[in-house]
Amino acid sequence: MDSVCAIDLYWLPLGAGGWFVRFNGRVYEWIDAKRHHREPLDLYHTALEVTVPEGRFIIENAWPVPDRNWTARGVTVEGPVFSPALGRFRIFRYEIRRWLNGTIADIAYAIASPQRLSDDEELACRVLDLAARVPTHVWGRKDGGVGEMWNSNSVISWLLTAAGIPAADIHPPQGGRAPGWGAGALAAERTSVPDLPGTTALVSRR
Questions:
Q1: Which pLDDT value is given to residue 135?
Q2: What residues are paired with 7 via a beta bridge?
Q3: Which residues of the chain have pLDDT under 70?
Q4: Sign, CA torsion 148/150/153/158
Q5: Can you give the residue ranges of every domain in the chain?
Q6: In the chain, fewer beta carbons within 10 Å around the N or the C end?
Q7: DSSP string, 12-34
Q8: Which residue spans within the chain are E strands per DSSP?
Q9: Is the pTM of this model over 0.85?
């Protein structure tokens, strides 16, 4: 039987698992909607589930960093939150996870998900390898000259675009938006990514 390979995208309502993030997200969206003379929309955070012959991986951007057990969560990259200077403290760092057999905390709240983006093994392997090469722009800031704040959605759209899946053509569920999505896609379009090895070596190092 052939192995199933897939890249699946999950649309997760921002703050679905906790009132604090949900409340602040709604305040942010209300202010942004007023500033741009539009109606407020539902906000989404994104995560990927990537399946290859070597296993199933969850790719997600999380903050704050919960502890130093990076290997258990498959952490590939860390970056600063709000300010490079603050990034010296763990609570002001985000992490990008390429988590073998991992979980998505708010998956029960996902909308219109999973969205199958590809079943091509080469593309799936490339997304996994690129998870260690995501730019470490400052989370929550308009960093890197991409015109929009860098956040978890930027990471996912950067990965997809850099791998060869145009994130600009992917849209959140009706009535919603994913802040930072365009920033990641634009940053990836400006990046030259070399050919990468497959995931066999990646999995064997664990």
A1: 92
A2: 50, 118
A3: 1-3, 17, 19-20, 192-206
A4: positive
A5: 6-204
A6: N
A7: EETTTT-HHHHHHHHHHHHHHHH
A8: 6-13, 42-52, 55-62, 75-80, 93-100, 111-118, 176-177
A9: yes
Cα separations in angstroms, 46 against 2, 17, 39, 160, 206: 29, 14, 22, 12, 25
H or E segment and range at residue 152:
helix 152-163
Compute φ and ψ for 169, nearest 5 degrees. Answer: -90, 0
Q: Which amino acid, residue 89?
A: F
Residue with tokens 């940053």: 187
Cα gap 157→72, rounded to integer Å: 24
55 vs 5, 28, 71, 184, 199, CA distance in Å?
A: 9, 38, 16, 26, 10
pLDDT value at position 205?
Answer: 34
Tokens 């919960």, located at residue? 66
Sort strands 75-80 and 6-13 into parallel, antiparallel or unpaired.
unpaired
DSSP 198: -
- How many residues would you count in the chain? 206
Side chain identity at residue 18, one-letter code:
G
Could you tell me if 51 and 6 are in contact, meaning their C-beta atoms sit under 8 angstroms apart? yes
> What is the per-residue pLDDT for 52?
97
Bridge partners of residue 78, in order along the sequence: 95
Residue 21 has phi, psi (to 5 degrees) of -65, -40
- Residue 36 and residue 200: Cα distance in Å, rounded? 47
Q: What is the pLDDT of residues 88-119, one digit of tens each?
A: 999 999 999 999 999 998 999 999 999 999 99
